[in-house]
Amino acid sequence: MIRTQGLTKKYARNQALAGLTLEVPEGSVFALVGPNGAGKSTAIKLLMNILQPTAGRAEVLGVDSRKLGARQLAQIGYVSENQQLPEWMRVGYFLTYCKKFYPGWRDDDLAALVASYQLPLDRPLKALSRGMKIKAALAASLAYRPRLIVLDEPFGGLDVLVREQLIESILDRTPEATVLLCSHDLAELESFATHVAYLNEGRLDFVEEMGALSGRFREIEVTLENPTALPPGLPATWLNAEQSGVVIRFTDSGYQAGPSAAEIQRCFPGVREIAARPITLRAIFVALAKRARENP
Questions:
Q1: Which residues does residue 241 pair with via DSSP β-bridges, in sequence order?
Q2: In this structure, which long-range contacts are made by residues 164-172, counting pairs with CB atoms below 8 Å and at least 24 apart in sequence?
Q3: Are the C-beta atoms of residues 166 and 138 closer than 8 Å to each other?
Q4: 48 lies in some domain
C-alpha cells in the first residue's frame, strides 16, 4: 500500500525526517510511534503530498506521492489532529458536500456512522467539541470505504470511551482497509496494531510486527547471592541496567529464554534467581526513549 525509499525532509538546518525506508503491507494496521518531534507527522504529510520531500521518494497505492490524483484520493481516508474543517458549515451539509467527491460513497454507511457517533446534523461544525469534530471528519472519511485510512494523531485529548468507539468503528466499517496511523495512545495501539515503526529524531530505529516486538522485550530482574557492581561491557540489548543491593533490573530487547539466562549467568556470578516478565508497548518505548536520552 505504501513504500518509501530514503524519504527525507529538511527545514534549513533542521532535519525532520532522515532517509525513511519502509513498506506498509496491504491489510495491516501500521503504527508510527516515537517521541514528540520524531518525524511521524512529517512522514504522513509527505505521503499525503501536503509537504514535498527534500530527497527520496514515496509511493502510495502504487503512485508517486507527489502525483496523487483524484483517482487515488478517492480511495484514501485522511484524518489529522490539526485538520482544517469548514466550520461555518452545519454537520449535515458538510457530509453532503463531501459526498460529491467520492464515487464510492455509501449513504447507508454514513447513516450508521451518524447514528453511532450521535452527530448533530443541524449544528455548525464550529459549535462542536473537539471529539465531535473528529467524529464528523471520520464519518466523512469512512462513508466511502477507503482502501487506505491515514490517521495523524486523531485521538489526542479524547477520553478513553470515545477513543475505543472510534477505533472499533474504523476496524468494523472498513475491515479490508489498510490503516496507517501515528498516535501517542500506546495502550490502544497495543490492542489492534499489526506492525510498529519506531522513529527517533527523524530516523527509523526499527520496523516490526507487533507480535515479534512484544516477544523480544522482557523486563529482567536478577537476584544475586551477594551485592556486586555492574560489570562493564553488558550486552547492547540490555537497556537501562540499574542495581539496588542484590537486585539488578534491566530491559532486554533481544530476549530468548535459554540464551538470555545463560548470558545473565555469565555476566553475574552468584545468581540466585532470574525473573523475566512481559512488558507493555508503553514500557517498551519508555525504555527506548530513556536509552536514547542517556546515549545521544
A1: none
A2: 164/188, 165/116, 165/117, 166/134, 166/135, 166/138, 167/191, 167/192, 169/113, 169/116, 169/117, 169/138, 169/142, 170/138, 170/142, 171/29
A3: yes
A4: yes
All cell numbers assigned to 38: 520524531
* Residue 195 bridge partners (DSSP): 30, 209
Taking the C-alpha atoms of residue 251 and residue 287, their distance in angstroms, rounded to an integer, is: 7
Query: To the nearest whole number, what is the mean pLDDT of the chain?
Result: 90
**Other C-beta atoms lying within 10 Å of the C-beta of residue 269:** 11
Give the structural domain span for 188. 2-213
**Are 28 and 75 in the same domain?**
yes
- Assess whether 197 and 249 both reside in one domain: no
291 vs 116, 266, 275, CA distance in Å?
A: 43, 23, 21
The model's pLDDT over 257-275, given as tens digits with 9 standing for 90+, comes to 999 999 999 999 889 999 9
In a domain, 290, yes or no: no
Cell of 8: 527525507
Cell numbers standing for residue 177: 482497509
Total domain count for the chain?
2
In a domain, 158, yes or no: yes
Q: Is the dihedral angle over the CA atoms 86, 132, 126, 44 positive or is it negative?
A: negative
Q: What is the pLDDT of residues 212-257, one digit of tens each?
A: 998 999 999 999 999 888 888 899 999 999 999 999 999 999 999 9
Plot region of 233 (φ>0 → left; ψ -120 to 50 → alpha; else → beta):
left
Confidence bin at 65 (pLDDT 50/70/90): very high
pTM: 0.87
